[in-house]
Specification:
The chain is an alpha/beta fold. The chain binds nicotinamide-adenine-dinucleotide (NAD).
Length: 303
């Protein structure tokens, strides 16, 4: 116990922390010494309604266990309310070190039956909500020279899922978001990493089948807590986690083919080789991709 990673003197914002994963993150970080802004508007899984008692109940639980926390009942979709989260951390705790973007809703529908309202609602909470909360926090962290940001993506975003074009788009958007923050924030001591969890919460009620009993939120918190800790040197990475499994997920590029006179027919003839995974690389940034293009050009001089 004595050598466990601690968060004393660290302040965290955790969005959507009134239930499920966010609640587990808030309780554990607070147990390990963090001062936590517990944000939750207390809505239903589809985002409807609100109940200010959700955030307060978690704050009460943290305080009863001797921890430090304050409730925030704003919506991540409201830029002013999101900015208030950073201000609240600084007003109440004197600092801000950690943001876990976790608030989320579902509006599932097969794409052919989808509508703009449900598309927008899901993008607003997951992707724009993370933007709203992260921007003021990031500005503060950048000045401070340190900070840890965690985005909550999903296997549905990384791999795609039936009925979830809105959710999958938002969740993959968060990967690009974190990858771009990595490029900008890394040199300022700010990291942004991503989790792609699977866990038994109200959001997945009835969906996980036999996995439900073995996928408690606390096993996701183990990964989030590590990514939030000062000692974590990862930046821009995606960790899939569930039931105690933790694995890195990355975007790889196959060696493919290179021909300066490429035609439609050549792509068709070589599509298997283009897609073959052997010898793939994992570009770190756009510069790496440009390097691969340059390499190909050099190896294939003009006739
Ligand atoms: N449970 C899983 O298996 C799973 C899988 C992949 C991704 N996720 C993601 O993990 C996150 C947490 O989900 P969960 O499973 O704990 O679900 P949950 O429904 O238990 O918790 C989500 C919380 O977010 C809050 N919330 C929703 N909209 C909000 C808003 N606009 N502002 C502030 N709070 C808001 C809700 O009130 C709720 O308490 C979500 O982003 C979800 O998409 C969960």
């Amino acid at each position: 116990m004595s050598d466990e990673l601690r968060f004393d003197e660290r302040a965290a914002i955790i969005t959507g922390a009134g239930n499920g994963l966010g609640k587990a993150h808030a309780l554990e970080l607070a147990r390990r010494g963090a001062m936590v802004v517990v944000n939750d508007l207390g809505g239903a899984v589809d985002g409807s309604g609100n109940d200010t008692s959700a955030a307060q109940a978690v704050v009460d639980e943290i305080k009863a266990a001797g921890g430090i926390a304050v409730a925030n009942t704003g919506s991540v979709t409201d830029p002013a309310a999101a900015k208030r989260m950073t201000e609240q951390a600084i007003d109440e705790f004197g600092r801000l070190d950690i943001v876990v973007n976790n608030a989320g809703i579902l509006r599932d529908k097969a794409f052919h039956n989808s509508d703009l309202e449900n598309w927008q609602a899901v993008i607003d909470v997951h992707l724009t909500g993370a933007y709203n909360v992260t921007l003021p926090a990031y500005q503060h962290m950048r000045e401070q020279g340190s900070g840890r940001i965690v985005m909550t993506s999903s296997p549905a975003g990384l791999y795609g899922n039936f009925g979830q074009t809105n959710y999958s788009s938002a969740k993959m958007g968060l990967v690009g978001f974190a990858r771009a923050i990595k490029q900008e924030g890394g040199r300022k001591g700010v990291s942004a990493n991503v989790i792609a969890p699977t866990a038994d919460t109200r959001m997945t009620e009835g969906l996980l089948g036999t996995l439900a009993d073995d996928t408690p939120p606390e096993l996701i918190t183990a990964v989030v807590g590590y990514l939030c800790h000062d000692s974590c040197e990862l930046n821009g990475e995606v960790l899939a986690c569930a039931g105690g499994r933790v694995a890195r997920v990355f975007v790889g590029a196959t060696p493919g083919i290179f021909d300066r006179n490429l035609t439609i027919d050549m792509v068709a003839e070589n599509i298997e080789e283009i897609c073959a995974e052997e010898g793939y690389t994992v570009p770190d940034n756009v510069g790496d991709e440009m390097g691969l293009i340059l390499e190909g050009l050099k190896a294939n001089p003009k006739d």
